[in-house]
Amino acid sequence: MLTYIKNIFNDVGDVSLFTIRFFKEVFKPPYEIKEFFKQCYFIGYKSLPLVAITGFIMGLVLTLQSRPTLAEFGAESWLPGMVALSLVKEIAPVITGLICAGKIASGIGAELGSMKVTEQIDAMEVSAINPYKYLVVTRVLAATLMIPLLVVFADGVGIIGGFAGVNIHSDVNMVRYSEQVIKSLDFIDVIPAVIKTFFFGFSIGLVGCYKGFNAANGTESVGKAANSAVVVASLTVFILDMMAVQIVDLFY
Amino acid sequence: MIVQEKNITKKSGESVIDIKGLYKSFGEHNDVLKGVDINVGQGENLVIIGKSGSGKSVTIKCLVGLVEADKGEIKVFGTDITKLNNAELNAIRIRIGFLFQNAALYDSMTVRENLSFPLKRHSKKLSSAEIETAVVEALESVGLEEAIDKMPSELSGGMRKRIGLARTLILNPEIILYDEPTTGLDTITSKEISDLILAIQNKNNTTSIIITHDMACAKLTGDRIMVLKDGVIYAEGTYENLEKSEDEWVRSFFV
Ligand SMILES: Nc1ncnc2c1ncn2[C@@H]1O[C@H](COP(=O)(O)OP(=O)(O)OP(=O)(O)O)[C@@H](O)[C@H]1O
Ligand SMILES: [Mg+2]
């Protein structure tokens, strides 16, 4: 029990150091621009299909599920606005965050983990190349910037999914639907929801890198690194979301 | 006990690598190195042999600061690397080539990118045409020009070792550390690699430490041989000396 608690503190300390190192190195030249764009491509572009499918289904299902309740109060006309609001504020950021925790954090964890195990990270180190800068900084930055974009994309696709859901039972044209959606979305709803996704992205990238970079020796630790990256990143997304909601709650 | 063999001939006086009293343990119960002393002269090939797990790889990892030594002095080019900060250490690392036991090629890059990767970062003045020439030259020196566009996963074990060697050579290091350059290769390929090590030594007057289990390689490449046992240098001498050693355990390597 005592060693368990000690381990937790050790981990927290290590992660903090790892994070501090990120901020120390991110502004220091040389910048690994090419690797950064490559990672943006892998993290952002390659996740589009997955995010599109989940986004569409989220919108569709949410609409279909909410309809009976709203119909009871005769408030069916609120449906587009309500769906859009819940998507943008909560559901799209969290679900996309979780999907990315599964896809991106595990991918990074496995990639860096296997590089660690096969001594590729050591090889960079001995050829006087900073592996932290080349591998970690680029990936964390790419995740921080790409995941908000993916979330905005999921918002859009989700709203289209909602349109499909509305049209299953009634006939609403696209112009009227989007009017209602836009009317319901306030700036102060959207902005905090977007801001928190930067933190989601940062933590997903950082957790993946941390787990991979610190993988133990032996091939089985690659699997462990990928696995625990997903678990920790998903948990972090939830915790950050809760904190974000609390903070926003203070202001409004 | 240290079995000192007579007639140790060094190629030249000045020592480039000088390790004194190196200690390293992993955790509380795994004392790997318990006072290792190694010196290597300019242009000399030192072979280190010893049982698997005796700490040979750890020793040369300490030498480039990949593993932090617990105690002891590690002088490379006259400076103690245990006292350097990261930037100073990197300045020394550029002058040292390290061939990893499993080649450690970057899996996500082609052979060309693997070789140009360190070059692009350390020789900023080079044009891309000059980099390309250097890459091709390094590949030619290991006889693998045709593999330039392959991915590491498409290469055989022996090819990976040779590409790893090419990547090491491309920065023209003054010291090369070979971790089992011939292990797992057939005798013909092993011989080729041993010849390559000798050729590199003769061409650039490089100083090398070669870790090996392959006694043919040790005989061919080694100017001097050290035997690592129980965390210390147990015996030292030329191949011929050690082959006729009075110590049965040392002799057992040579059968
Ligand atoms: N990073 C590490 N963490 C913990 N223990 C380690 C680490 N690296 C090496 N060791 C331990 O150090 C000892 C020596 O390992 P080393 O790799 O130097 O052996 P070696 O002499 O190179 O053997 P081989 O010929 O099989 O390569 C082993 O007992 C190993 O368990
Ligand atoms: Mg070894």
How would you explain this protein's 3D organization?
The complex is a heterodimer of chains A (252) and B (255). Chain A is mainly alpha-helical and 252 residues long. Chain A has one domain (43-249). Chain A has nine helices and no strands. Chain A has helices spanning 2-26, 33-43, 48-72, 79-117, 120-126, 131-169, 174-184, 187-213, 220-251. In chain A, helix 2 (33-43) packs parallel to helix 6, helix 4 (79-117) packs antiparallel against helix 6 (131-169) and helix 4 crosses helix 7 (174-184). Chain A starts with a helix and ends with a helix. The mean pLDDT of chain A is 91. Chain B has 255 residues and is α/β, with parallel strands linked by helices. Chain B has two domains: 1-95 and 174-182 and 207-255, P-loop containing nucleotide triphosphate hydrolases (Rossmann fold), CATH 3.40.50; 101-172, no CATH class. Helices cover 35% and strands 26% of the residues of chain B. Chain B is built from nine helices and eleven strands. Chain B has helices spanning 56-63, 86-93, 111-122, 128-141, 157-169, 187-204, 215-221, 239-243, 248-251, and strands spanning 3-4, 15-26, 30-41, 45-50, 71-76, 79-80, 96-99, 175-179, 207-211, 224-229, 232-237. Chain B has a seven-stranded mixed beta sheet, with helices on both faces. Chain B is globular. The two termini of chain B are 23 Å apart. The A-B interface holds A 30, 111, 114-115, 118-120, 122-123, 125-129 and B 61, 64, 66, 90-91, 93-94, 96, 98, 100-102, 104-108, 117-118, 121-122, 171. Magnesium ion is lined by residues 56-57, 101, 179 of chain B.
